[in-house]
Amino acid sequence: MSRIRAKDERTRINRSFGWLAVLGVALVIAGIVGLVYTGLATLTSMLLFGWLLLIGGVVGLGHAVQARGTGFFWLGVVVAALNIAAGVVILVRPDAAAVSLTLFAALLFLTGGVFRIVGSLVVRGPQFGWTLVQGAFGLLLGILVLNSWPSDSRYVLGTFFSLALLFDGLGLIATGFGGRNVVGMVTEAERADRGRSLGGDAYYAGRSDAERNVSAEDRTGPEHGDRRAGGDVPPQ
Questions:
Q1: Which of 75, 177, 184, 192 is found 20 to 30 A from 4 (Cα to Cα)?
Q2: Phi/psi of residue 3, each to 5°?
Q3: pTM over 0.70
Q4: Compositional bias (Basic and acidic residues) at which positions (predicted)?
């Protein structure tokens, strides 16, 4: 019964990893399509962002109403109202929202790059070179985005969104196939152990009781072998 439950559990885990790989393939396809149609990917990312803000604001408002009478009430109401307002604005004007968020992303890259470069030069830790390269890359990316802003707002966010989908999908595919391989290795190891156990049982089942007793005495030590060969010698 325990073996059947273990087999069912391995099958369930194997199927879960398989669905994870399928989801990864879907994300990779979506990322590739988004890289081809960056304008559509930008519009899609804006609409998703707007709906997330709107739904999050409604849920936050519901939590704030449940917490009325506490110090969290007014803060929750203000945050929920801001989320709802931002979500409505993004859904109504996704193009203007893309322009604003592209500028925000460029400034974020610039400030992050400057802080990484300054921090790496001041601290000079074990990751000095890698942090310096990250800072330089972020600074360069921010300058490139700002240089073409606002005309690049149609494809910058869509490109970032598509790349995120692509790499997340590749990670899910690697996790899914890696998990299935691990489950297969565990299953093969259990089969090998069970085969060795069954082989040992069959070997001893084909021998007589006397032969099994002799083999057991052989494994206990040389002194038992001497006593078996010479018999019990009475003390002098």
A1: 177
A2: -65, -35
A3: no
A4: 208-230
**DSSP structure string for 160-171:** HHHHHHHHHHHH
Please state, in angstroms and rounded to a whole number, the distance separating the CA atoms of residues 112 and 140.
11
Query: d(Cα 4, Cα 226) in Å, to the nearest integer?
Result: 47
Task: Give the span between the Cα atoms of 1 and 10, in whole angstroms.
Answer: 14
Q: Give the SS3 label for residue 154.
A: helix
Rounded Cα distance between 233 and 236, Å, is 9
Render pLDDT for 41-73 as a digit per residue (tens, 0 to 9). 888 889 998 999 999 999 988 888 887 777 777
Contact 117, 88 (CB under 8 A): no
Alpha-carbon gap, residue 67 to 75, rounded angstroms: 11
Look at residues 35, 138, 148, 60 and name the one whose alpha carbon lies nearest to residue 102: 148
173 vs 180: CA distance, rounded Å: 11
What backbone phi and psi angles, to 5 degrees, belong to 54? Answer: -65, -50
Q: Is the bond into 234 cis (omega within 30 degrees of 0)?
A: no
CA 40 to chain CA mean position, Å = 27
The H-assigned helical ranges of the chain are 2-36, 38-66, 72-92, 94-123, 128-148, 156-205, 209-220, 222-230
Could you tell me how far CA 171 lies from the centroid of its own chain?
A: 7
Choose among 90, 128, 134: nearest CA to 109.
Answer: 134
Q: What angle do CA 51, 53, 56 make, to 5 degrees?
A: 105
Longest dimension (CA), the chain: 110
The string of pLDDT tens digits covering residues 80-122 is 899 999 999 989 988 888 888 888 888 888 888 888 888 888 8
